[in-house]
Amino acid sequence: MRILRIFFVALLLAGSGATFAQADDASPSPAQQIDDLRGQLDQIEKAMKDDKITDAALDDLRSKSSDVASQAQKVSTTLQPTRDAAKARLDQLGPPPAAGTKEAPELAATRKDAKKAFDAVDAQIKQVDGLALEAQQTANQLADLRRIRFQETISRRTNSPLSRPFWSEPAAAFPRDSANLREFAQTVQSDVANSWTNGNRTALIACVVMGLLLMTGVRFYIEHRVRHLTANRMPPGRLRRSALILGIALTSTLTTGLGTQLFYLGLNWNDTFSQETDGVALAIVHLVFFGAFVAGLGRALISAKRPSWRLPAIPDETAMALRRFPMLISLAVVLFYFLKILNHTIGTSLAATVLTSSLQAIVLTVLTALALQRLGRTHHHDEDGTPPPPRPIWASLFIAAAWIAIVASWIGLLTGFIAFASFVAGQVVWTTIVVAATYLAMRLVDDLFETLLSEKGPMSARAQAIFGTHPKLLDQAGVLLSGVVRLGLFLFGLTAVLSGFGAGAADILVIGSKLQSFKIYDVELKPSQILSSIALFFLGLVAVRVIKSWMAEQYLPRTSLDPGMRSSLTTLLGYVGVVVVVAIALLAMGLSVQNVAWVASALSVGIGFGLQAIVQNFVSGLILLAERPVKVGDWVVLDDAEGDVRRINVRATEIQVADRSTIIVPNSSFITKPVRNMTMANPQGRVLFKLPMPLDSDPVDVREHMLEAMRAHASVQENPAPLVMLDNVDRTAMTFMAICYVGSPRDAGGVKSDLLFDILARLRGAEIPLLRPQDLVLRTGGGAPELTGPTAAGAPKSATDPDTSN
After folding, report:
1. Is the dihedral of CA 282, 284, 289, 290 positive or negative?
2. Is 724:706 a contact under the CB 8 Å cutoff?
3. Are 671 and 623 in contact (CB under 8 A)?
């Protein structure tokens, strides 16, 4: 087995080497590539001169011409290094000597060969550059021709429906048109009969049965499974709704379209269809695919029977009123485009074509107008006067533009511009379909990223475990990715809308090429440089955050710096990193140092008038981080604020006070005002309280009890030792002052309360009175003896007292 494996690997390597060798040998030379591109461009220029060329062929030729220009530019880029090398070799040999000066024959021959090589490659580059320019000019000519033909088509005027010839000419051409239609119908009937009789009855019956099953039973089963999977297997959230709507739209499209495709395969199993019948049949299959997508998309978005799954914010009444319009619009689109293909196939008269276009304009605009009218009921006030919810700006603009287009189509129809009216009606419907599909795709993208990466999404915990990043970063990444994808979907939808006006992706690329650079006050800005600058800015911020995290979590904890110093260094590093990242981003955008200085000088005027306080606080924050008179973790007292310094920001500092609230103090206050830092030099806290005692108390005994209480407390430090002093003695009491120290000023309040409780309990336990009661003594004049105050029973009676003698 091992030998077989080695042999197999060797065989693969040998085959790969032979393939690469053949590829290298088969790669054409620059001259062959230039000749091939010249031949392609000549064929394009020859084909564009055909008077019967169709619009689709013009678009195809334009795409080929753009490809030729792109390939020519690539060849030129490939030849450029060879030209530079030949030019360097020629410059190294130097110019030929002056007349009359002899030169070595070898050197002259070498210079001649170098000159010949340089001239050859230079001529090829000039030739291919000219070819690229010619191809680009041809593409522009094709675009102008396509635009002119489009303008001629929609500006062509015929008879108005209000005139008699509009109706008489189709009637006069009806016999010939009906004869052509009968002839085509007989051809189709003959082709179908041949399909039945040429031995493919079994295949035809099987395909028809499978198609019917696919469009009925299989479709209902798949829709049921989609509802079950989205409701039970997907994480909770809005993604369920958007995924269900997409599933229903795709199910309707695929089952109906594939069922029609099976009908076509069964009828044309042995290729019995004629060319005309086969073309019409394939067109019907494509139209059914498109019509099924339109009907399924509209039915899924409206969700008349399931309001909880509805994406657009429309009431249930409006949804019920609109539930039939997706199918009606789908049938109208399929019918009129089929009539257009049929008219082209059987060659009907111009009058019949004009009549068909008129009916298309009337039917499509009437259906659209009715749908917009019923949709407008969404913004009617309720019976109780409640205003409707605000409608998105883009939706309001689109509805207004649709009404304007409908009115323009009716005016064009009445004035005889049938082609214009039909075109506008078709564009209204096509734009509506594109907007609906783009809206669903954008909602699906938003819901997908919200579910996968959002901080509040149901899969946030799993995403954090997979990527190992902060939830905020995942949330921001989800928003950015969603925005990028939404921009791509918007450009794709815009391209789809413009395709109906005779334009396409190439026109958008041309517009983008014209906007490759623009100037603002002599400063040239390029979109590529702006995108690179934005990418560098975000990558730089990520790098600064990674370095800060490494410094704060890995390096600084292993140093002897205190936590406050580590926090200050990390914050200062973040400020410096952001400044460097901004400078790099500005340079990547194309702004030189001189331009940056010009911008800074312009901003200085605004700083001088309105940003003085902000700049002052910013500079004060830098001073706080550098000098560190106040650092994170300090206990400070500033005016009425007293608490812990939690964070020093660019503009202000956060102080958490005792009630757990936060006071935002401007940084300049720490520089311009007196600040009391309780923990700057010594982190200890002092506990001080005074205790009044009666004069007849034993001061030594009281002092011992207070010292014992302080020594017994676990938070009171031994050094400095607790101290009790007799602070004051007056007529009524003597006051003791107790001082002790704790590990932090934040513990002083709690320790003080504990000591007072303990001291009071100790004094009561020792039966030391805390307050001496006052004696009341009454004295009279002369030598009368002292009388004690009367009691309540012996007090004299008042005139208002009740008589109790009875």
Report:
1. positive
2. yes
3. yes
Question: What string of H, E and C letters represents the secondary structure of 3-22?
Answer: HHHHHHHHHHHHHHHHHHHH
Amino acid (one-letter) located at 342: L
Q: Which two tokens stand for residue 261?
A: 């495709």
What are the CA-CA distances from residue 20 to residues 15, 27, 134, 538, 550 (Å)?
9, 10, 34, 41, 47
pLDDT digits (tens, 9 = 90+) for 618-676: 777 777 766 777 777 777 888 877 788 888 776 788 888 877 788 888 888 878 888 87
- The predicted pLDDT at position 740 comes to 92
Q: What is the mean pLDDT of residues 188-213?
A: 79
Q: Which residues lie below 8 Å from residue 351, measured CB to CB, with a gap of 6+? A: 169, 170, 172, 173
Task: Round to the nearest angstrom and report the end-to-end CA distance of the chain.
Answer: 134
The model carries a pTM of 0.58
Return the biggest CA–CA distance within the chain: 166
Q: Is 48 helix (H, G, I), strand (E, B) or coil?
A: coil
Angle at which helices 563-589 and 612-627 cross, to 10°: 130
Q: Is 41 within 8 Å of 131 (Cβ atoms)?
A: yes
Q: Residue 546 and residue 473: Cα distance in Å, rounded? A: 12
pLDDT exceeding 70 applies to what percent of the chain? 77
Whether 596 has a pLDDT exceeding 70, the answer reads: no
The structure tokens listed for 490 are 């918007």
Position 745 pLDDT exceeds 50? yes
* Partner residues linked to 724 by β-bridges: 738
CA atoms within 13 A on the CB side of 219: 21
Element (H, E) at 727: strand 723-729
Strand (E) positions, 562-684?
635-638, 641-648, 652-657, 662-666, 676-677
- Burial class for 296, CB neighbours closer than 10 Å (0-12, 13-18, 19+): buried
DSSP 383: T
Residues 6+ apart with CB under 8 A from 379: 388, 391
Closest CA to 622 of 669, 677, 572, 665: 572
Residue 737's pLDDT is what? Answer: 92
Say whether 360 sits in a helix, a strand or coil.
helix
Q: To the nearest 10°, the Cα dihedral for 189, 190, 195, 198? A: 150
Q: Please state, rounded to an integer, the average pLDDT across all residues of the chain.
A: 77
The span from the CA of 668 to the CA of 634, in Å, is 17
Q: Is 518 helix (H, G, I), strand (E, B) or coil?
A: strand
- At 402-454, the pLDDT tens digits run 889 899 889 988 888 888 888 888 888 888 888 888 888 888 888 888 777 76
